[in-house]
Design goal:
CATH topology of the largest domain in chain A: Rossmann fold
CATH architecture of the largest domain in chain A: 3-Layer(aba) Sandwich
Number of domains of chain A: 2
Oligomer: homotrimer
Structural class of chain A: alpha/beta
Strand content of chain A: 5-15%
Distance between the termini of chain A: 28 Å
Radius of gyration of chain A: 20 Å
CATH superfamily of the largest domain in chain A: Aspartate/ornithine carbamoyltransferase
Largest interface: A-B, 30 and 28 residues
């Protein structure tokens, strides 16, 4: 389980470690060539993604009946997990919890830090180490960027590390959301991921999901991205730089209707007004970035409409009944993709044959 | 799983559907001749009640030892349930949760809406649909009358419905409370439900349990009801109308002592002062509607004393030791009756032979 | 399950019962010669302690692999437990919860009394009796001294008692903490518990763990105790009396460094400022009661450093990496010791052979 002593020594200072490029950090979160801590969307390459998606598909097949469900429920019945959700997120929480249930993992929940020993003056590092004492894995959501990563870093330096899965770390990373989004594309495109045009719509500046999804798109061939947003909420320059560096074509526009007809997938997002500093959101007319029932006739027959949910008014409710609206399925895909990921981390994916 | 397209189309408007008579709605909540969503006390007829009670009895018998408990724990080990309790209710919650545990159902809990995505501006309908994504059944308690029913109605119109069980919907309905009350009568009367006199005592105007229980009593022969209450809290006219319509004899009185001697069961209730508009409760002398130790010698040897609990002072604590005080057993009956109900809904009742 | 009628009658008055000496009370919490309710550290004698420690060790051995873990998970799969934690304590809660998971016990949690029916005016006794209705055991933490004991007393007088385990009752008792502390000594000393010098450091006046641990030390031979504390927070006279009565040598000092070299175990504690009446803690210089990295070279090679956690600054973080720092293992020992205790109470300890 332990990293080499060498590696531990080199990475002994958190401040220095944190500043490194992700590619340099990855070995520290890997074990015997297998992802150990799941922290960054960048940890998923095409081969791993495909394997996880096929595993998720196979798991769904197997569990169509009681016998198969009981088989799945025995795969990780020896594992105990902690869901440590400092930041509220019912959706991600339930998705992970039920993924655990599918695999038979026994779960403990911390959802309210006021019940925690933190009130007694304990350091966050001690608190997390305490939690890890009782379990074999921590699924963690935390508002502070870097905190989940630091937890994994700390754990890997103890004599009893446990895998850490990032369930969302501030504006930072939410790798399993990117995983489920890509899995939804994979299922919608029948596994044919190359040569697609993905249109992302809304508050791209402050949305974490569109950032992570963009990173993952690099794993596929000839993907072109269209960013549709109000002027104030355009995609951040670092992402555009990333695309240029990898020769991935993209365009930016504020005119949703002009591009929706070409899309293979439309990824809608809500306005992230919880990140407002001075009421920016209210100054924006967001309605041009809504998907309305009348748009259904303008998009391809094969185009899928996605949304990370929760939604407000970005997608009209009557759209839900169109078969191209896949956002409800997208939610369920999250549960299955997460189950596949955990099966992989604990090396029982081989018991889910595809 | 799906209702016929025809049925769905006819019932496409919630506002119109909601106003219909319960008897007209029932088919929409039924599947292959079997209750699918459990929403109203009126869904239980004598035949179903008897079947559920015998199933509950058999389940208790089977689970007397570890082998039988493990057998029961395998019956629904492939099912995941969501306990969505927006309104606090420890008792009903624990009863359902442990009923799930008995059958091996894996559970997720939402007990505090502040952790929910509702804070992000999601509609309640979207929230519920999200919850349903991860599970096979929702057990729901909600303060708004009609909301649980609407959830079931919505779910049945999607391509992935799950059964909804009403764990209490405002002043509206609490069908499994009525189920457990009737089950308690069934056990107390050794299965002989006909020709009984039931005395209901207390705040009958605002008590949900006495209303539901009255509805269920129609399923049995020659039941006479006595309503004992302060003038201000008499049973509501709609219930009295219901009794007249079905030729069920009843009387109303404020004189508890004059009627207790004839009772086969006395159903005590507490004053529902949480529903006060202007301190009505404080203006009433509730003590004549208490059951005191000195009353034990006035009631029949076979009369049982029930209470939906929690109690305040309606029943003196020393009464608890009398074998006719069955309210603690009544609580436990709830767990078993709910387990029987869930076994029935998921069609494994046939594996619990009686 | 029931106590003899005789015993129940004699102990019919709680107020009188509570005042009795613990030795007189023990039979009431014992069943067929076996501890039934776990309420006081004084319930553990050397023979039982040794049995529980060997059982805990064996359970750890067995569960090294999936097959063994699944075996353990079947031992109490027929048991349902309630974790009733009115007082927040993440650590103790998680430790018990995961101990339950190891044995397959299905759990219900009450961690927030605001969701409880207490709001409806129910008595605490009724609330607890309700909880007991649905489960086979209650693990209880409560801020009021005596409340956990009273619950056990009440339950034992009903026709359906369930074992009560004390997870901490105010300043009163925390028997499983004493159990895990002693288990940690047992493991650190390779089972050789006699002839040891134990140094306890810090706020001994208000620390519950040092009191309970002292009680348990009486079970071993030739133990000498050293109490290191600020003048204001010296160990209470009743404990010193207890030691004199049992001819156990002890000394008191404020000079930590002068005694650390002789210690076989150093038990560090934090200042209990939550019990301050008028800011007493701030008037004390606590730094002489800290264990610093520089002290490592002053203590025996075999000396272990313990702490009940959470810590503040009593132990410098760099000390954690020294193999003599066993406090993180101490936490994990708690989970296993509690699992052994529950296995014993439910009479499946014989299935965990050592």
């Amino acid at each position: 389980m332990k990293r080499t002593l060498e590696m531990t020594r080199v990475n002994a200072n958190w401040g220095e470690f944190y500043k490194k490029d992700i590619s340099e950090k990855l070995p520290f979160f890997t074990k015997e060539g297998r992802l150990y801590d799941c922290l960054f969307a960048q940890q998923f390459n095409r081969r791993l993604l495909t394997h996880l998606f096929k595993t998720a598909d196979a798991l769904r097949d197997i569990t169509q009946n009681k016998e198969g469900m009981d088989y799945a429920g025995g795969l990780l019945s020896h594992i105990r997990a902690m869901l440590y959700f400092v930041q509220p997120s019912t959706r991600t929480f339930l998705s992970f919890l039920n993924a655990c249930h599918i695999l038979g993992i026994r779960t403990s929940e911390i959802r309210d830090t006021s019940t925690s020993s933190e009130v007694k003056g304990e350091s966050p590092e001690d608190t997390v180490r305490t939690f890890s004492s009782y379990v074999d894995m921590i699924i963690m959501r935390h508002p502070t960027p870097g905190f989940v990563e630091k937890t994994a870093w700390l754990m890997n330096r103890t004599d009893r590390p446990v895998p850490i899965i990032n369930g969302g770390s501030g504006k930072d990373q939410h790798p399993t959301q990117a995983l489920l989004d890509t899995y939804t594309l994979y299922r919608s495109f029948n596994g044919d991921m190359d040569n697609k045009k993905i249109v992302m719509v809304g508050d791209l500046k402050r949305g974490r999901t569109v950032r992570s999804l963009t990173y993952l798109m690099r794993n596929f061939k000839n993907i072109s991205l269209v960013f549709v947003s109000p002027e104030q909420f355009r995609m951040e320059p670092d992402i555009l730089e990333f695309l240029k560096r990898h020769n991935m074509p993209f365009m930016e526009t504020a005119d949703f209707m002009s591009v929706m007809g070409e899309a293979d997938a439309i990824y809608m997002t809500r306005i992230q007004d919880e990140h407002d500093n001075a009421g920016e959101s209210k100054k924006v007319d967001y309605s041009p970035f809504h998907f309305k029932a009348e748009h259904l006739k303008l998009i391809k027959k094969t185009c899928v409409i996605m949304h990370p949910l929760p939604r407000r008014h970005e997608i009209e409710v009557t759209v839900d009944e169109d078969p191209r609206a896949v956002f409800w399925r997208q939610e369920r895909n999250g549960m299955w993709a997460r189950a596949a990921l955990m099966a992989y981390i604990f090396d029982v994916d081989k018991k889910i044959k595809y």
